[in-house]
Every structure is written in C-alpha cells, then in structure tokens.
C-alpha cells in the first residue's frame, strides 16, 4: 500500500490497482508534485467546497472517469458537472471496489450552503487512513483511536485549520501508527516547519514528513 503526498491536502492512496485521490488542488498550487492532466485516479474524495480542496477534482474525474466521493451536497454539486459521484454523509461507511470510506466530522466551513465539511476514514489495501480535511482540533478525535489507524493525515498550517500544537494534540489522541502533516507552506499564512511539528509529537506519535512527490509504503 503506497501513500504519496502530492501537495497541500492531496494524497494518492494506491493499493496496486486503485488510485484514491484526496482533495486534488494541483493547478494553482506552486508546490504541487503532479499536474491535473497527468495524475491517475479511480476515486476522488473531496472534503469540502473550498478551492484548495475541490481544486481539479472535476477536470480529473472527467479525464479519468474517476468517481467523486463526498457529502451529498458536495458530491451532488460535482455530479451535476457530468461526472460520477457517490453522495454520502457523516458517520456511514460507503462500500467501494477498493474497500470502504467513512465520512467523518471536520470542524470547518464547507463553502457550500447546506453542506458539512468532512474528513475521511479510508480502508484500502488492508490499511486504514484518516484524512482530516480542514479542521480545528476537537476532543472527539479521540474516538478515532477505535479505528486503529495505520496513518493519520493532519493539517498543521494554522490560520485556517489546527496548527502544529493542536495537530500534535490530535496526533496523540488519535494514536495512528504514523502521522503525516499536510496543509502547510502552500500559502504565506500557513507557513510551518514540519520538523518542528514532528518535535512536538516526539514521545507520543511517529511523524513521517513527506515532501510533495514523496511516498511511504505502509
Ligand atoms: Ni477549507
Ligand atoms: Mn484548506
């Protein structure tokens, strides 16, 4: 199971057969490690309707035939663009050909009236990932420990989401085998040092810092 960071909140989860992309903001992201017209995708998880998360989702879905996965209002909006979409909602597992996805709470604006922002628990390749989306730290993140996660992908940028200190608290209560920081350095307000975040997590969680384009095998 290969996890590749493509920049900002965009990851490629690849089990050898299926590519699951998250929040593919590539065009307009100077730090992106892939181009929208070359990235592979079978499913695209979209956490909310802010531009740095929907990004190239529709264009990639149109080119690849990938299916968008998100909360009903979000995925439905994208489905109106002639791409296939799975309309879920918070708390329910969605079975998919590679495994399953559960949409989970994210404390953040959705950017879309009537919609809730979300994060994802993604089961693929025998591994379990938590992609937090954009969120504040909240105490119920501790319940994610029950998921026995292999990896937690957490925003550390501050300003729009939790920053390094709160993300370190989140990493501790979530208790994933590895924590991968995301959503930093893309814009000036979210400039952060991932090594400083890793230092904050020392003794409580193992941090794997991926530069855009880097992968880790899990
Ligand atoms: Ni946002
Ligand atoms: Mn964002």
Q: Can you lay out the helices and strands and say which pair or pack?
A:
Layout: E1 2-7, E2 10-14, E3 19-22, E4 43-45, H1 51-54, H2 57-64, E5 67-71, H3 72-79, E6 85-88, E7 93-96, E8 99-105, E9 118-124, E10 127-131, E11 151-155, H4 164-174, E12 178-182, H5 194-200, E13 215-217
Parallel strand pairs: 3-4, 4-5, 5-6, 10-11, 11-12
Antiparallel strand pairs: 1-2, 1-13, 2-3, 7-8, 8-9, 9-10
Helix pairs in contact: 4-5
Bound molecules: nickel (II) ion (NI) and manganese (II) ion.
Task: Give an overview in words.
- With 218 residues, this protein is of the alpha/beta class.
- It has a single domain, classed as Metallo-beta-lactamase, Chain A (4-Layer Sandwich), CATH 3.60.15.
- Helices cover 17% and strands 29% of the residues.
- It has 5 helices and 13 strands.
- A 7-stranded mixed sheet has the order 6-5-4-3-2-1-13. A 6-stranded mixed sheet has the order 7-8-9-10-11-12, covered by helices on one side.
- Strand 7 and strand 8 form a beta hairpin.
- The longest helix has 11 residues.
- The chain starts with a strand and ends with a strand.
- The mean pLDDT is 98.
- The structure holds nickel (II) ion and manganese (II) ion (MN).
- The site of manganese (II) ion has 6 residues, from helix 1.
- CATH architecture title: 4-Layer Sandwich
- Outline, from the CA principal axes? globular
Radius of gyration from the alpha-carbon trace, in angstroms: 15 Å
Q: Average the pLDDT over all residues and give the rounded result.
A: 98
Q: How many individual helices?
A: 5
Specify the CATH homologous superfamily: Ribonuclease Z/Hydroxyacylglutathione hydrolase-like
Write down the secondary-structure element order.
EEEEHHEHEEEEEEHEHE
